Amino acid sequence: MCIDDMIRNIEEDVAEAQAQAQGESGEIKVAHYLFLMTFNLIGNLVLSRDLVNPRSKDGHEFYVAMNNVMKWAGTPNVAEFLTFLKWLDPQGIMRNMVQEMGQTIRIVEKFVKERTEEWKPGRKKTNDSLDALLEHEGDEKDGPDVISDQNRLIIILVNTMP
Questions:
Q1: How much is the pTM?
Q2: What secondary structure does DSSP assign to 62-125, as a single string?
Q3: How many domains does the chain have?
Q4: Where in the sequence is the domain holding 69, given as residue range(s)?
């Protein structure tokens, strides 16, 4: 289903790009669609729903933020080699990574919040990861009695990362 949606979105965008280019070959970024398709596939496993529409503002923002997080994570950091510069963050890697990761967290938090508001004990279960987190009841010996919203968000965020 996710692959079919991705192909349909690519076809629609190619047709739109060609119409705008007045018959010339339009260009699209296939990586954008592959990334969002993968994210939606994982979202279906974890939250039982597509999370991002490729044409939505959130989809584009999430794609850009995650690309930037990956870019900053792969950039060699001088402060890791010269530890006395760590507090200074001369390349701005940590500052930029925190900003982009914050944007990513806000987008995923919106998805989790929507689903959490829909969740009620006794409703038809989807048997996904979020249902398991919402139903969790601990004995406070090995962990908390219930999982906090913040911890639930972190677990879902880690599980939805492509």
A1: 0.66
A2: HHHHHHHHHHHHHS--HHHHSGGGTTT-TT-HHHHHHHHHHHHHHHHHHHHHHHHHH--TTSPP
A3: 1
A4: 29-160
Domain membership flag for residue 122: yes
**Using N-to-C axis directions, what is the helix angle for 30-47 and 93-118, rounded to 10°?**
50
Residue 23 belongs to some domain of the structure:
no
Does some domain include residue 9? no
Written as tens digits, the pLDDT of the chain (162 aa) is: 577 888 888 888 777 777 676 655 567 778 878 887 887 887 777 777 777 776 677 777 777 888 888 888 889 999 888 888 888 999 999 999 899 888 888 887 887 777 777 766 666 667 777 777 777 776 667 666 778 878 887 887 777 665
From 92, 88, 111, select the one nearest 40 (Cα to Cα).
Answer: 111
